[in-house]
Amino acid sequence: MIKNYKTCREKAEVFGKIFVLKNNQPDAVLFSLKEYERLSPIIEYMESLDEKDLAKFTETLPKEGIRRNYTIEHLRNDIK
Fold first, then answer.
1. pLDDT bracket for residue 46 (50, 70, 90)
2. Over the range 21-46, which residues count as b (16 or more CB within 10 Å of their CB) and which as e?
3. Residue range 30-48: mean pLDDT, rounded
4. Taking the CA of residue 58 as centre, how many other CA atoms within 13 Å lie in the half-sphere pointing to its CB?
5. What does DSSP say about strands 17-22 and 25-31: parallel, antiparallel, or unpaired?
6. What pLDDT does 50 receive?
7. pTM (2 decimals)?
8. In angstroms, how far is CA 5 from the centroid of its own chain?
9. Contact by Cβ (8 Å): 78, 18
10. What is the DSSP string of 7-75?
11. pLDDT level of residue 57 (50, 70, 90 thresholds)
C-alpha cells in the first residue's frame, strides 16, 4: 500500500473502502473520506453506549449468516 497509496486511495473512493492484506489475510481497511463521514456518527453513537445498551443494540443486528462475509476471492474481485 505504501508504494501504491494513490491507487489504493482512488479505489477506496470508488468502492467506499478497500481491504489491506498482509500475507493474503485481511489486515486493515482503508475508508474513503465520504464513507468515513457516513459511518462516523454510528461509530460515535456505539462508543457512547454502556455495555448493557451495546449488547441490546448488537442483538438487533442481522445474524452472521445474513451479513456480507468477505473471502479472499471477494477482496480480489473488489480490487479489479
1. confident
2. eeeeeeeeebbbeebeeeeeeeeeee
3. 92
4. 10
5. antiparallel
6. 93
7. 0.62
8. 18
9. yes
10. HHHHHHHHHSEEEEEETTEEEEEEE-HHHHHHHHHHHHHHHHS-HHHHHHHHHHSPPTTTSPPPPHHHH
11. confident
